[in-house]
């Protein structure tokens, strides 16, 4: 049996377990974003006004950026269901230390993946990640600090980058095109319809295809979400515009 002294020690120094930050469990009847007919009051379970979330990808060749057999991540952008969008929505949560934040949250595996597949064309990945969070991540209303129980500062930053990578892993643009016989080759050309058909087969809906001159350069995959942006149910939705030029105003965000 434990002695009286050891029992007293246990009483005097109880073990306290940390409680993790969590987003709320959303009701099953919450509408799909961009599909509500009336206002939705639960702002932590309904993405609005940025109810259309775009997972965007690059194929950079000048200079060649990222793996030879994969596209790279551009970002995850909340659009207002009509083509307009907000940006830099919370100055108090703009950060210039994404790498440090991810390391502090034990997300080293995520950071390693981003270092390979979320590349800046000029070699400054950190600044690129900061830009995507500050401009777009801060505008996703369902991951604002007030939405979390037991909020830990910057937890939403790590969860945002985890979600973007998770979506990207489910959208292997290179393989979808390769399966349709569309392989990068300076001597070969492919039609818009061939590319759109291959990507729609994977995504389930039409995508936005962007060219830099006559070279395929970017793809935008559209989603609506039932619930919050981290663990909600993502539903593929059709692009508002199917083909754009990278030289057009407002395209590269």
Structure description:
The chain is an alpha+beta fold and 253 residues long. It has a single domain, classed as Ribonuclease T2-like (Ribonuclease Rh, Chain A), CATH 3.90.730. The chain has helices at 4-12, 98-104, 108-117, 125-135, 155-169, 173-179, 192-203; strands at 52-58, 72-79, 208-212, 215-226, 233-237, 243-245. Strands 1, 2, 3, 4, 5 and 6 form a six-stranded mixed beta sheet that branches. Strand 3 (208-212) and strand 4 form a beta hairpin.
Write the layout of secondary structure elements.
Elements: H1 4-12, E1 52-58, E2 72-79, H2 98-104, H3 108-117, H4 125-135, H5 155-169, H6 173-179, H7 192-203, E3 208-212, E4 215-226, E5 233-237, E6 243-245
Parallel strand pairs: 3-6
Antiparallel strand pairs: 1-2, 1-4, 3-4, 4-5
Helix pairs in contact: 6-7
Our Rg estimate from Cα atoms comes to: 21 Å
The figure for the number of domains is: 1
Q: What's the CATH architecture name?
A: Alpha-Beta Complex
Encode the helix/strand succession as letters. Answer: HEEHHHHHHEEEE
Mean pLDDT: 90
CATH superfamily: Ribonuclease T2-like
User: What are the low-pLDDT stretches, counting only 5+ consecutive residues below 50?
Assistant: 1-17, 247-253
Could you tell me the CATH topology label: Ribonuclease Rh, Chain A
What share of the residues does DSSP label as strand, in percent?
A: 15-25%
List the total number of helices.
7
Sheet of most strands: 6 strands, mixed
Per DSSP E runs of 2 or more residues, the count of β-strands stands at 6
Shape: globular
Helical proportion?
Answer: 25-40%
Specify the structural class. alpha+beta
Distance between the termini: 67 Å
CATH class: Alpha Beta
InterPro entries: Ribonuclease_T2_eukaryotic, RNase_T2-like, RNase_T2-like_sf, RNase_T2_His_AS_1, RNase_T2_His_AS_2
GO biological process, one term: RNA catabolic process
Family: Belongs to the RNase T2 family.
Signal peptide: 1-20
């Amino acid at each position: 049996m434990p002695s009286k002294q050891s029992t007293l020690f246990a009483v005097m120094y109880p073990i306290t377990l940390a409680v993790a930050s969590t987003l709320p469990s959303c009701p099953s009847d919450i509408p799909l974003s961009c599909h509500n007919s009336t206002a939705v009051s639960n702002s932590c379970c309904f993405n609005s006004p940025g109810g259309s979330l775009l997972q965007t990808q690059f194929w950079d060749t000048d200079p060649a950026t990222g793996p030879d057999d994969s596209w790279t991540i551009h970002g995850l952008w909340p659009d207002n269901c009509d083509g307009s969008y907000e940006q830099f929505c919370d100055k108090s949560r703009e950060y210039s230390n994404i790498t440090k934040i991810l390391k502090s949250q034990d997300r080293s595996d995520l950071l390693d993946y981003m270092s390979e597949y979320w590349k800046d064309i000029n070699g400054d990945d950190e600044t690129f990640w900061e830009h995507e969070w500050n401009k777009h991540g801060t505008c996703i209303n369902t991951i604002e600090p007030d939405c979390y129980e037991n909020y830990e500062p910057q937890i939403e930053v790590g969860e945002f980058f985890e979600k973007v990578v998770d979506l990207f892993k489910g959208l292997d643009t290179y393989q979808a095109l390769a399966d349709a016989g569309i392989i990068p080759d300076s001597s070969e050309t492919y039609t818009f319809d061939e590319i759109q058909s291959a990507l729609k087969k994977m995504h389930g809906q039409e995508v936005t295809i962007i060219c830099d001159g006559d070279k395929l350069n970017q793809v935008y995959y559209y989603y609506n979400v039932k619930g919050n942006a981290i663990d909600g149910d993502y539903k593929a939705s059709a692009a508002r515009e199917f083909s754009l030029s990278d030289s057009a105003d407002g395209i590269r965000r």
